[in-house]
């Protein structure tokens, strides 16, 4: 009886600060209270900056007027501006930021390296190159969006192949991805240099990252893909939590490491391709978003939901700054995020040695 009580006490202590949701006989989801509080804070931050986003522009509205318009109240002019002109761009910013950041979190976990984001290893540039090639050859249509997905998958396959037996582990995968990104960027510039000015201008937003070039259908397709990816991440969260461990440990726990890696990488490529299809390659959101999610609470696990919320917050804030800082001149969101994210990348390189 004493042993049984000790085991019960130990089990209760191990779950302190957590809640378990059980689905069926064998499936359960362990929820950390600290992570929930962090995510609620990030959600409130996102809501605040979203209201500011909807209220700022050529016609400035107070937060109260924004809320009125969202609920179908207030003047018809305010409702038209909020719902027809600004809401779609806000949704594009939220979806793309969340997608880039969640993809970055998964990629960092796979490679066990804080620098291993889709942008760093060339997935963004490859998706951009394929999208630009479709614009140069076929004109602006739904084709660039589909080609961006093809480019993201192609870059990932090439990085896998060039990294040899190391897969997503170690520096070879990152170095291979950097080389692929450099080549893809060069090809993009070569294509743009060979076309007329009008065609180059049509493709320009894809090269810097801009929410002006968004296609309505792709925004909602990205939203659907993001929702499905979040559900998949929650369902696989226990398995993804094993990725930082060695292959021997994961195998010893009865899990199939290859299937877990393929699932995480597939979600990352899908999210990156869809996000680039909407906004082009937006620099360093995938790097800064997961770091912000971790830094806010010192969370040592894999902050999947937190990364998505942090990325959405960063993207909305960056686009708001780009629209209003030098108004009426508008800065593409990709330039704003690069200006903020590049010093942070340098700081990581100087202060920390990435883990192999």
TrEMBL record:
Family: Belongs to the binding-protein-dependent transport system permease family. FecCD subfamily.
PANTHER family, alphabetized: FERRIC ENTEROBACTIN TRANSPORT SYSTEM PERMEASE PROTEIN (PTHR30472), FERRIC ENTEROBACTIN TRANSPORT SYSTEM PERMEASE PROTEIN FEPG (PTHR30472:SF24)
Compartment annotation: Cell membrane
Membrane topology field: Multi-pass membrane protein
Source organism per UniProt: Marinomonas arenicola
Gene3D superfamilies: ABC transporter involved in vitamin B12 uptake, BtuC
Cited InterPro entries: ABC_BtuC-like, ABC_transptr_permease_BtuC
CDD domains in alphabetical order: TM_ABC_iron-siderophores_like
Membrane-crossing residue ranges in chain numbering: 40-61, 90-107, 119-136, 142-161, 173-192, 218-241, 262-289, 301-321, 333-350
Name of protein: Iron ABC transporter permease
């Amino acid at each position: 009886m004493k042993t049984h009580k000790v085991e019960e006490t130990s089990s209760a202590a191990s779950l302190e600060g957590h809640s378990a949701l059980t689905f069926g006989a064998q499936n359960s989801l362990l929820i950390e209270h600290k992570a929930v509080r962090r995510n609620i804070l990030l959600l409130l931050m996102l809501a605040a900056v979203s209201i500011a986003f909807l209220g700022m522009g050529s016609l400035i509205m107070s937060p109260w007027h924004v809320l009125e318009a969202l609920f179908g109240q207030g003047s018809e002019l305010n409702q038209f501006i909020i719902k027809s002109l600004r809401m779609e761009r806000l949704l594009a910013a939220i979806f793309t930021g969340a997608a880039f950041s969640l993809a970055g979190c998964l990629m960092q976990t796979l490679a066990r390296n804080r620098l291993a984001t889709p942008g760093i290893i060339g997935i963004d540039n490859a998706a951009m190159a394929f999208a630009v090639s479709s614009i140069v050859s076929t004109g602006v249509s739904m084709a660039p969006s589909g080609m961006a997905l093809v480019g993201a998958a192609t870059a990932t396959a090439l990085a896998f192949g060039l990294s040899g037996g190391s897969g997503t582990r170690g520096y070879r995968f990152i170095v291979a991805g950097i080389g692929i990104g450099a080549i893809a960027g060069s090809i993009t510039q070569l294509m743009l240099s060979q076309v007329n000015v009008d065609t180059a201008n049509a493709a320009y937003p894809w090269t810097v990252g801009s929410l002006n070039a968004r296609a309505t259908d792709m925004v909602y397709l990205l939203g659907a893909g993001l929702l499905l990816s979040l559900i998949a991440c929650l369902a696989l969260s226990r398995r993804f939590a094993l990725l930082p461990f060695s292959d021997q440990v994961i195998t010893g726990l009865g899990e199939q490491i290859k299937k877990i890696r393929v699932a995480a990488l597939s979600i990352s490529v899908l999210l990156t391709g869809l996000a680039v299809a909407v906004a082009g390659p937006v620099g360093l959101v995938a790097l800064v978003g997961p770091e912000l999610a971790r830094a806010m609470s010192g969370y040592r696990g894999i902050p999947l939901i937190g990364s998505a919320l942090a990325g959405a917050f960063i993207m909305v804030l960056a686009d708001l700054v780009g629209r209003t800082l030098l108004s009426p001149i508008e800065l593409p969101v990709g330039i704003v995020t690069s200006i903020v994210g590049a010093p942070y990348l340098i700081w990581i390189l100087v202060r920390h040695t990435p883990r192999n």
